[in-house]
Each structure stands twice: as structure tokens, then as C-alpha cells.
Specification:
By secondary structure, this protein is an alpha+beta fold. It has four helices and four strands, in the order ββββαααα. It has helices at 40-43, 47-54, 62-65, 72-77; strands at residues 13-15, 22-24, 29-30, 37-38. Strand 1 (13-15) and strand 2 form a beta hairpin.
Length: 82
């Protein structure tokens, strides 16, 4: 039986600036501090951090919270490695 179209995964997505993996736009997002597009793992780090973000806490990526803020220009340079 085919899934109901409402419950299907999103076809829209992009690549994570940290790992190059697929970013589902419903789970990942952009860090407001370093302005990189990141997957769930690199943006939140854990389900608890995502829950805090959903409840209104400031959402910053794992690297920004650790004090290792990468510049957006460095993140864009990764694309030439392929």
C-alpha cells in the first residue's frame, strides 16, 4: 500500500556544510551565529537541544556552543574539495 502523500518525507533538501550529508529541511536548518546550513546532528547535537530550541531557547550549532565558530566563507570553500 502506498503512503498517503501527506506523510511522505520532504523532497526538498540541501547539503550540510559540516559533513556534506543530506539535510532534510524539516529537521536541520541554519545556525543564526555562523549562518551555515547544517544537518540535525551538527545543528542540535542531541534531541534535548532540539527540544530546548523548539521551546524558545536560543538555537546555535554544536561548534558555536563549543566556542569554535567557523566563518561562513570557510564553510563555502568546502564545496571545491570534490
Amino acid at each position: 500500500m502506498e503512503k498517503i502523500r501527506f506523510f511522505r518525507d520532504s523532497l526538498l533538501g540541501t547539503e550540510c556544510d559540516a559533513c556534506g550529508g543530506r539535510v532534510d529541511l524539516m529537521q536541520g536548518g541554519a545556525c543564526p551565529s555562523c549562518r551555515r546550513i547544517l544537518c540535525f546532528r551538527h545543528l542540535y547535537g542531541s534531541w534535548f537541544a532540539r527540544l530546548r530550541s523548539e521551546l524558545g531557547a536560543e538555537s546555535r550549532c554544536v561548534e558555536c556552543r563549543a566556542g569554535r565558530t567557523p566563518t561562513p566563507s570557510t564553510a563555502g570553500a568546502r564545496g571545491g574539495e570534490r
